[in-house]
Amino acid sequence: MNEYHPWLHRYAAFVAFCTFLLIIAGALVTGNDAGLSVPDWPTSFGSFRMPRMVGGIMYEHGHRMIAGTVGILTILLAIWVWRQDSRRWVRWVGFAAVMAVLAQAVLGGITVLWFLPVAISTAHATLAQIFFCLAASLAFFTSPDWHWDEAKLEDTSTPSFQHLTMITTGAILVQLILGAVYRHSKDGTVAPHVVGACVVTLLVGWVVSTVLMRFAKQPGLLHPALLLGGLLVAQLFLGMGSYVMKMAARSAPQPQPPVVDVTTTHVAVGALLLVTSLYLTYQSRRFLVTRNQELKTAPTPHQATT
To answer: Fewest Cβ atoms closer than 10 Å to its Cβ: which of 96, 163, 170, 292?
Structure first.
């Protein structure tokens, strides 16, 4: 069992929280249509000095400052994990987080230099969600009670709950990608995003109902499942509200603060929905075992007699 390092866990949780703030800052840039308020990169108006933080510059340059801070924090976290955590696979998660944050910085720069192409902007938004998952995973894995040898309940459902949560997490990520395409496309259609929302709703409903009917006595599954359901309900209302408000304000000369607030919250809750589903996927691996897994881990006749 890995030795628990309380300050490492606290720092990992802090980095995950800062990453969440970074996602909110990025959503504010898009919501306020401030992506080209600072037209160059990596400098700002040809200099590394702080520009005057007014209008869209406040959102765009503020986003860059938070991103740079998160990048430094992530590198320090990876070094700390590599030096203090004995689990090789956790070290590689830290390494992946560093690679993701560096790639994110490059994509952010390309987004500005190429004048906000939809494909690059969408990739930038998608990688932000993936990086948040990596940062949150490090916070999970360094927590004091995180180990994989928990007493397990048998899962005889088809598909297995482990597979169901994996599919749900993947569907939520795809839905976030569709949302990013819609936000960054000036003339994009909302139909694919609506279809994706319906698919995610069905999958999350399936996940929550499965936990309530079969694993309600396991807090490690019940609590994140209830949180997942609650976040989904909030996300659906935010999605409908943001669309209605956008349509009502589509002739406005500039983004309206209420619209920006709702759309930014929609992005933030979407990120929390993804990470919660990922956490439930991890929990299913910790607390459940399928029949096939039992057969793989069962001792052979020779092993049983030795």
So the answer is: 292
- DSSP E strand stretches across 169-300: 288-290
Structure tokens at 79: 């070094």
Q: pTM for the full model? A: 0.93
Report d(CA 212, CA 238) in Å as an integer. Answer: 25
Q: Is the pLDDT of residue 96 over 80?
A: yes
At residue 302, does pLDDT exceed 70?
no
β-bridge partners, 44: 47
What is the reported pLDDT for 2?
63
As a residue count, the chain comes to 306
Residues 82, 3: Cα–Cα separation, whole Å: 14
| Beta-carbon count within 10 A of 61 CB | 20
- 75-80-84 Cα angle (round to 5): 155
Between helix 55-84 and helix 6-31 the angle, nearest 10°, is 160
